[in-house]
Each structure stands twice: as structure tokens, then as C-alpha cells.
Design goal:
D-Maltodextrin-Binding Protein, domain 2, single chain, about 20% strand, 4-stranded mixed β-sheet, globular, 3 domains
């Protein structure tokens, strides 16, 4: 990284957050400084929120009808409560009263309908309207086939009635996603740069590719943030972020995988660490339509050929848990007793022979240019070779890799999946249901009628116990059919300054709003 960049960041820290002075080693500032983001938010317009840094930033300024807690439980937000009809289709949301946008405009039911309509409007071109597709008439409106959304109705200023096309018990979880945030009635052209929400923080300053400064919303309807300022530093280079943390200029640091052992083996550093088992799956999608890969025995052979335990411990610092399915252990439906595919080269070769390929097969394994993913892909290539599978690595920029995978041009693709919302459905349905083959997220092009029927039934099931059982059954089917290499569920690791209190790493990306987090200047 050029030296001028480091100097610029240090000056920003000095000017905006009054440095880290004080002879006692404590920060002389009152701002919380977060260095987890490596690139700018895409926009502060919720309709354009498609990535983690953007979603996190949007979550500070805006709110939806619901929200997530740090442990990924759905909670009331702008809706104080809700009920659902016996058939699971009609949802009545009672809205909070005396809530105002940052500009003083009172929040009403009209804003809910207008916000959802705007997201689904083809002219918005947000590309992320699918969380609202369960609403009756939403897909027709989004496709330009209708002039309104028949499933949205204002009962009065404080009540919105939403009718779904079919029962969908986890619908409130989708409403906690950034794209479902409520915005004002009038949206100016520069709304993405000058947002107005109802959230606990207001955007104060945005210096692109450098920092975002938020100011406490003193008129917030709920519990107000304890600190008056929150700063998100944009630091692309991990070594720079580490240096800034060790200088006391930032309070939160994401630990890169390659540095995990170094931090864990240093007792002083280790005391600052906080781990979080996030809802993130690492996997290799196997295109089930391409040649030998159409045979489940070949796909199981690939799973047995790869030493996932060694990859986890040697390349990822042990940060995670081996996957034996697609549902993270923290979610209902996960079978935490199921044993992952065991590394067994002899078994892999036998399965290949049983499938008619005693001499092995040749495949192309696609990966991004990310350094960690490249190392993992190279390790996978080596393990496959031992089992008689020749894997040619195809390394591309992330967008090109995704495009090839969606078009079905890739044999195997090393990928990871962050949950949009904390439910097993968000892994089973987008990654493996046939309706999502290709562009929808199922780049394995897995088409299994039994799996589809079980997942579809789980989406309609309103009984929690029955729905969980359906999730578990679907996951079992997927594990046996092996449309992917099940690698691991990832743990994120953070360093937290000793003076930063009440910060808990969130299970879901937008589950931490920095409300109760504070700087304790009495802690050396």
C-alpha cells in the first residue's frame, strides 16, 4: 500500500476522532472506530443493498418492520407486533407510533407500502427485490405485468396488512433484510449519498474509500446509542488495519485467516480475541449436469478425496467446523450428529471405478483471485490428484467466475455462502432447489424431485417442529446426493480493544447496531 494512503488514514483518525492521546494509554476520543470493512458501501439506498458492508451501513441508518439481534433472533422494529391468519397467508403488522424519520417526518403505514413498492418497481433496478416476492402480486409487479401489488394494504396509519401468495412462516425474517428497510415518501436523486431513515444513527460524513462517520440520532424512538459517534474506516490492506489497531486508532479488527495462529499464540493478543460462528458455508459446487459429475458416486468420490480437516486446520487457522450438510449447526434442522465425508482415497477410487471411471476423470475447478481461496483450491487440486482426479485450476476475477458458474460453464466452483437471514431455508432453497438453478444460486444445477418437494413443503409449513423435521430431511437428501463438496462452516475472528465494552460479534451481518457498545475510558 502506498505510504500516502496510510498517512491519509492517520490524519483522518486524528482530525475526526481526536486521536488516541492520553498518558494512561486510553483513547482520548468518544467515537467508536470499526475497521472491518475493506471497501466502500455500494450506496446508502436500501434498495441497492447487495453486500455485507452496504447492508451493515444501511442497518445503522434505516430500520425494517423487524430486525435481528446479535444472536440472530428476529425482533420487532418499526412493527411493534404482528399476527398471522390460521392459513399462514395474511400478516397484520401493528406499527410503532411517534416514530420520526431523521428529517422529522412522522412514520406511517403509507411509508411501508411505498417502500416495498419502490423496491419491486422495475425502474428501481435494485436487483435485490426477491425477499418481497412472497407477497401476493409482487412478482407480476416486478415484471411489469401489474400496476400495483395486490398483497399490500393499508388498514390505517398504524396497521399494514400483507397477504402472501402462499404460506411462508419465516416471512418476518425476510423483512429484517436491508432491502426491506423503510424509506421516506420522497426520494431525491442523491438519496444514496444523503440517506434519511429512522434508525439509531444518522449519516454525518462519507469520504469515499476512506471512512464513513455516523452521528447518534438523539430523536431515536428506541434505546439510543451510548456513544455519540461511530466511524467505519475503509482499510483494504489487512496489515494496515492491524497497524492501526495496535496504535489504538481503531477499536475493532477482523483477523485475516493467515494471521489466526499468530494472534492465538501471543497471549497478550489472544486476550483481545472474540470468535463468532457466523452463518457462512464454504463449499465446492459440483455441476451435476456435466459428464461424469452427473453420477452421485463420482460426486461422493470427490468428497472422500478431499481432506477437509487439513484444509480447515492448516489453511484456515481452524476457524470453523467441518460441514456434514448445508445447514449451519446454529440453525434448526441441522443434524449435528452426522459425520462429515471421511478423507479416504481408497474409497474415492473405488467409487470412481464403480461409476465406470477406473482410470479417473478430468475436471476444471474454478476459483476467484482471492488469496485464501486460491490456497484452498490448490490444496483441493492436490487431494483430487491422489484419488485419480485431474483438476485444472481456472482462476478468474469474482464477477467472471460467478457468471461462468451461473451459465453452467464450470465443472466445479469454490464458493462461500453468507446467510441473508438466519434460517435453514436460506441455505436449502437458494443453493439446491431446482427453481434456483443457475442465476438463482444453485450453480450445482441440482435437480432432485424429492428434495424439491420436501423443501417446498417446509416453506409452506407453519408448525415449527414439522418444518424443522422437513429441513433435516432435505439436508439428509442433499448430503447423500453430494451436489457439492461440503467443506466447513466458518468462524469469524475479531480483536476488540479492552476499552470497548458491550460489543458482541453478531451471528448475522446486520445483527449488531452498536447501541449499547461504549468506550470505557477507565480501563487501561
Amino acid at each position: 500500500m502506498p505510504r500516502f494512503r496510510i498517512l491519509s488514514l492517520s490524519l483522518v483518525a486524528l482530525i475526526l476522532i481526536t486521536g488516541c492521546g492520553g498518558g494512561d494509554g486510553l483513547p482520548a476520543r468518544t467515537a467508536i472506530v470499526d475497521s472491518r470493512d475493506t471497501y466502500d458501501p455500494r450506496s446508502f439506498d436500501p434498495a441497492l443493498s447487495t453486500d455485507v458492508p452496504t447492508g451493515r451501513a444501511v442497518g445503522y441508518v434505516f430500520e425494517g418492520l423487524t430486525r435481528f439481534s446479535t444472536d440472530a433472533q428476529v425482533e420487532p422494529a418499526l412493527a411493534s407486533s404482528w399476527t398471522v391468519s390460521p392459513d399462514g397467508r395474511i400478516w397484520r403488522f401493528t406499527l410503532r407510533q411517534n416514530v420520526k424519520f431523521h428529517d422529522g417526518t412522522p412514520f406511517t403505514a403509507q411509508h411501508v407500502v411505498q417502500s416495498f413498492t419502490r423496491v419491486l418497481d422495475p425502474k428501481t433496478r435494485g436487483g435485490r427485490g426477491w425477499p418481497l416476492f412472497p407477497i401476493a402480486g409482487a412478482t407480476d409487479f416486478a415484471a411489469g405485468k401489474a400496476t400495483s401489488i395486490r398483497g399490500l394494504r393499508i388498514e390505517n396509519d398504524s396497521t399494514v396488512v400483507i397477504t402472501l401468495a402462499e404460506p411462508f412462516a419465516i416471512f418476518p425474517k425476510l423483512l429484517a433484510m436491508p432491502v426491506a428497510s423503510i424509506v421516506p415518501s420522497t426520494i431525491p436523486a442523491d438519496f444514496g449519498e444523503k440517506p434519511v431513515g429512522t434508525g439509531p444513527w444518522k449519516l454525518a460524513t462519507w469520504k469515499h474509500d476512506d471512512f464513513v462517520r455516523f452521528a447518534r440520532n438523539d430523536a431515536y424512538w428506541g434505546t439510543k446509542p451510548l456513544q455519540d459517534t461511530l466511524i467505519a474506516r475503509i482499510i483494504p490492506e489487512p496489515s494496515t488495519a492491524v497497524a492501526e489497531f495496535e496504535s489504538g486508532n481503531v477499536d475493532l479488527l477482523y483477523i485475516p485467516e493467515a494471521e489466526t495462529r499468530e494472534w492465538e499464540q501471543d497471549q497478550e493478543r489472544k486476550a483481545l480475541l472474540q470468535a463468532a460462528p457466523v452463518l457462512r458455508l464454504w463449499y465446492v459446487a459440483i455441476n451435476t449436469t456435466r459428464g461424469p459429475l452427473a453420477d452421485a458416486r463420482v460426486r461422493r468420490a470427490i468428497n472422500h478425496a478431499i481432506d477437509t480437516k487439513a484444509i480447515l486446520t492448516q489453511l484456515l487457522g481452524g476457524r470453523g467446523r467441518l460441514a456434514a450438510g448445508v445447514i449451519p449447526p446454529a440453525l434448526d434442522g441441522a443434524d449435528t450428529t452426522r459425520v462429515p465425508y471421511v478423507h479416504d482415497v481408497a474409497k474415492a477410487r473405488q467409487l470412481l471405478a464403480d461409476a465406470g471411471f477406473p482410470s479417473g476423470i478430468t475436471v476444471k475447478l474454478w476459483t476467484s483471485q482471492d488469496a485464501t481461496q486460491s490456497r484452498v483450491a490448490q490444496a483441493i487440486q492436490g487431494y483430487l490428484k491422489e484419488a485419480g482426479i485431474t483438476a485444472e485450476l481456472v482462476q478468474r476475477e469474482s464477477a467472471s467466475m460467478r457468471e461462468a458458474a451461473r451459465k453452467g460453464e464450470a465443472d466445479m466452483v469454490l464458493k462461500d455462502w453468507y446467510a441473508d437471514y438466519p434460517d435453514a431455508e436460506n441455505f436449502l432453497y437458494p443453493l439446491l432447489h431446482s427453481s434456483n438453478a443457475g442465476v438463482g444460486g444453485n450453480v450445482s444445477f441440482f435437480r432432485n424431485p424429492l428434495f424439491d418437494s420436501v423443501v417446498s413443503a417446509s416453506r409452506r409449513e407453519t408448525d415449527t417442529v414439522k418444518r424443522t423435521a422437513l429441513y433435516a430431511r432435505a439436508d439428509s437428501i442433499a448430503f447423500a446426493e453430494a451436489p457439492m463438496v461440503f467443506l466447513l462452516f466458518y468462524n469469524e475472528l475479531y480483536a476488540v480493544q479492552p476499552w470497548l465494552k458491550n460489543w458482541t460479534a453478531p451471528t448475522i451481518f446486520n445483527g449488531q447496531r452498536m447501541i449499547g457498545t461504549r468506550i470505557d475510558r477507565t480501563t487501561p
